[in-house]
Amino acid sequence: MKSSRLLLFVFIGAAWIATAGAKDESSNEWVIRTFRVNLAVLNGPPTLPIAITPSPLDPFAPADSPSSTSPDTSPTLVPQPITTPPQVPALPDTGASDKEWKACLEKSSIALSKIFDVLGAPSPAGMVALYDAPSSTLVVRTTTEHLKLLGPTLENLGSAIPRDLIFTMEVIEAEEATIRNLVDEINDRREHASTWKRCAELLGAGQAKSLGQFRLATHSGQPVTTQSGLETTPVKELQVDSSGRVVAIHGESHSAVAFEVDPVLGPDSLSLEVAFRFHFDYAPALERAEKVAGLVGTSTIEVPVQDHQGASLSAKLTLPVGATKLVGVWRPRGTPEHDRGNVMHAAFLRTEAPLTLASSRHDLSALLQQYAAPPPNNAFGKQTEAEPSTTDPNALISRIIKVHPTFFAVAATGDPTERICSVQKILEAQGIPFPEGSSATFNPIASSITVRNTAKSIALIETFADSACLLPPQQIGCTAYIIEGESALVRQLAEQSRSTSDHSEVWERVKKLSASGALRIVEVIRGESGSGDRASFENGTSRFNIGEVVLHERENPEGTTSNVDKKSPGENTTVHGASTQASALLRADPIIVPVESRVVGTSMEWDPVIAEGGRCVRVNFLLEHHFASPVSRSTTSSQGSIIPAGVPAAKFHCARILSMSTLLPGIPRLMGTWKVEGAPAREGRDISQAFFLRMDVLPFGARE
Prior knowledge:
Structural class: alpha+beta
Low-confidence stretches: 1-26, 42-83, 379-387, 412-421, 553-587, 638-643
Mean pLDDT: 77
Number of helices: 13
Shape: elongated
Largest sheet: 12 strands, antiparallel
Helix content: 10-25%
Number of strands: 30
Distance between the termini: 57 Å
Number of domains: 3
């Protein structure tokens, strides 16, 4: 008989969807469970060089073959070829007789029992099962003790099932106090589902407004983008030749909303690594003209520009599948409504990973109950022996220890088959004793270790398994505040925080002063990223400005360059004044006039790294905050004056901090102060601003 190896990647859906006849599972009772399973792949080509069996026997061999009559041994996992698994029969057509249904149930139960045996979960006598291939629905009646063995295997096999990855970004607007309270309550939380639920309640009550919901669907490893709203194509540069002809070169188009996701589903289908970028224009673009003088005689060149007003976020996160995350908050600006109002925006990212399967067949459970014989009252066959009720520390007990799928990637190296067969040697190398009669086997399909040992040794194995797992990286939450107040008060805060790195008391004082109106929080930044992953935030107006004007030297017809200024071939020349234009234009073709974009508002980039085993966070960051509107330079001049070319047409009022610091998780730190100048609304007042930064270490899987 031609033998092949069992294809063990059984596609199994979300575990235990329906329950019928369930009893208290603390005792060994009979229950019915429904799974999503794609058994069609069992007939595909072999892929694994191993077979999981309760003994070194072939479970699919005929009953009278030598390999099926050898004495039983303890469960092992060995590299062993097995014969082709039996076919699970198709279900009868509608209107089939009771006899046909009973025969189908009997054949299905025999075939599925053998498959369960091979998966390391020996079926008890009385186990029955039905399978519907078109809907990938499997219903099983078995014991609670059997489910303890079968359940983890089926759950882990579900990681191989195809899944759609769905991402929804929703932006809401609410009062500033409400959004700030949301930020305060999620600082040390890994999951923000309850925060989103609260926002949904506010939306329903009319206390918040949805500004848009943006949904993307893709697969693991496949980037996806969406763009919507007004699309514009900005001018990237102007090219001016010696005759005065001006050519506009356009850059990439800009959309009011842009959402991009690049996801990778984890090996266990429970975690999701997501790199995303999101841009949201919260106000119409401002149309104006940038002017350049002095390039061609006394003419002035006007460049029409559109300044976009919005917020941009980017980060790389590792999330549990189905997680909800508050990924950013910002204060809208740039319109009279926003300037007068006291509102903020918040962006929530929600993830889902539904199975790519047809709808479940919900009637199978009732059909199984209708045609299956009652289960035996005392037949829980093929179960392991009862645990000893003694308190003897040397007594051997059995445990199934769940491990991460990457367990052997960390705990061992070499050939996978050798690793599987030597799990006990790996544990013994860690100093864990294995007395006579003890054993340990690794089940890669269930990502578990089946151990028979003393209670003390099992505790050591659990500790080692936890430490050896390559778990998803911890996340780092970043929360930053920019506050504003009288300079004397800001100086007091700086003085109070001078001699300590824990500025919690200073921040508590800031909150009280803000509530009383003595201080004002002018910007809140909130985001997350993985350790070593960069994140960014921008909020404000993307203002387009004329950059440095550059001349590109050209060759004379004879093939030699001009002798003007004696520049080397290809070297750029910056135009400084109109007096040089005549000679410059003789040898330059064309003149390049770049149009550059700069965010007038608040922007921050940070790159955090967890250090000292999670006891601190080292972070490199760059903060730029504009505390007043830019001032445009007039291009008009008196008759006969020299008009300079390439002089910046705007002056900016901003503070910038570039630094690297080490912060204690959860502890706010005053990172910088500066004086505010150039704002008309603050004329005559001595105003300063301060920047507070907080980092939180959020272990993967932490819950609210």
